[in-house]
Amino acid sequence: MTDPGLAMTADAAKPAPDGGAPDLFAKFQPLIDQREALLSTGVTDPFNLVMERVESPTVAICNGKRTILLGTYNYMGQTFDPDVLAAGKQALDEFGSGTTGSRVLNGTYQGHRECEEALKRFYGMDHAMVFSTGYQANLGIISTMAGKDDYVILDIDSHASIYDGCALGNAQIVAFRHNDVAALEKRLKRLPANAGKLVVLEGVYSMLGDTAPLKEMVAVSKAHGAMVLVDEAHSMGFIGENGRGVAEEQGVLDDVDFVIGTFSKSVGTVGGFCVSNHPKFEILRLVCRPYVFTASLPPSVVATAAVSIDKLRGAADKRAHLWANSRRLHGGLKTLGFTLGTEEPQSAIIAVIMPDLERGAAMWEALLQEGLYVNLARPPATPAGMTLLRCSLCALHSEEQVGEILGMFEAAGKRVGVI
Amino acid sequence: MTDRDERKDAILRLVGDFNKKGIEVGEETRFAQDLEWDSLTVMDFVAAVEDEFDIIITMNRAAEIETIGQLVDAVGELKGE
């Protein structure tokens, strides 16, 4: 009926007006026209911004202007840590610029092993498998674990990488209403008892920054014989006693079969992983196509990742500061009169709900002119057709910067007329 | 009244609950193009149909259903009729 993962219906290629060969680009014409119409009004293209210089995890130069970054996933501000950078530089000197190979052939260097060991230490688990991106980790594990007669049961607001993992595989896909435990349970009850089931959940959903009721959802999944995968991309380092995520915080990590994570957020580079205690886990290295048929991460990337992961374990100060920032920004925006995605701050993401796309885009532009970068999120990326200004905090945002940010929101909000 | 007629009546009733546009609906009515439902409405409607008939409509199956008539047939299949 509709596919929430698809940006537009795939129309058949249309013949060219002069009767020539069909144009495969014709299916994109509505979007091309929409973009041309929007950009011809003189607004800055929110999807083409260039960070000309990056001064720190929280400040960059955009369009020649010093800009506070409130739209990165650099949650723990690790990207300029001296130990992290030193490890990267050393790895470049010792191992060169790239592996030029797949993990299963010549592309596993000592650094990849050390990175996986760092993950095992961090999560206290027996197995860790590093993919070249978090997107590929979801693609690989989901499409491989759930086969033709199995079921994947997922939250309707799941990330694109989870939907794409479902699409890449050939399992039966069943969605349930966002964070609705009763809806999940109803579906589990109706599935054939002897069919394989994989329930896919996220710890923190990245659009609104809300957490999942994992305690109840994992319990219900296990009661119906399902395996459980939790994507903790947006919780690593600052949720759960050991920073292992929402599952740990809610006391159900031991019941989770697979934890998926990423290096592109708190860890501060690029890459993805799956950690697990399942005794048969290692076979996945040979059967996951997004692991086998792709190049492994460069030596400098796994080196910076390993050091960063180890440092996250001792980062209690940064964690406390990140939460203080989140509470202050959430409370401050609420007081100014903005409608937010959550009642209370549940993560380092604070979504400001805009009344419509026009005012959302205008507000994004106004904030940029004030010197603040946030993410403009719009359908199909957002649930329920919302337009959002997504703010994501960094442990290194100073108290002064958070104050500045609130001032910029007030000024831009009044200019655009949303408060 | 055939089983199919009964199913169709139940489905039309459920469609009515979500028919914000207030258009006339029949066998050939298309969910995306005619009813203009967004993905959230589709999700809620599908959940209502699943509850009504105590079945699961996978996303794979739903992707093949374009019209009300096709949904009536699909529900019949899923109920093993």
Short summary:
The complex is a heterodimer of chains A (419) and B (81). Chain A is of the alpha/beta class.
Protein described:
The complex is a heterodimer of chains A (419) and B (81). By secondary structure, chain A is of the alpha/beta class. Helix content of chain A is 38%, strand content 19%. Chain A is built from 14 helices and 19 strands. A 7-stranded mixed beta sheet of chain A has the order 6-14-13-12-9-7-8, sandwiched between helices. Chain A has a 4-stranded mixed beta sheet with strand order 3-4-5-17. In chain A, strands 15-16-19-18 form a 4-stranded antiparallel beta sheet. In chain A, helix 5 links the parallel strand 7 and strand 8. Chain A is globular and about 60 Å long. The N terminus of chain A is likely disordered. Chain B is mostly helical. Helices cover 58% and strands 0% of the residues of chain B. Chain B starts with a helix and ends with a helix. The model of chain B has no long low-confidence stretch (mean pLDDT 91). The chains are: A alpha/beta (419), B mainly alpha (81). At the A-B interface, strand 8 and helix 6 of A face helix 2 and helix 3 of B.
Which features would summarize this protein structure in a list?
heterodimer, A: 419 residues, alpha/beta, four-stranded mixed β-sheet, 14 helices, 38% helix, B: 81 residues, mainly alpha, 58% helix
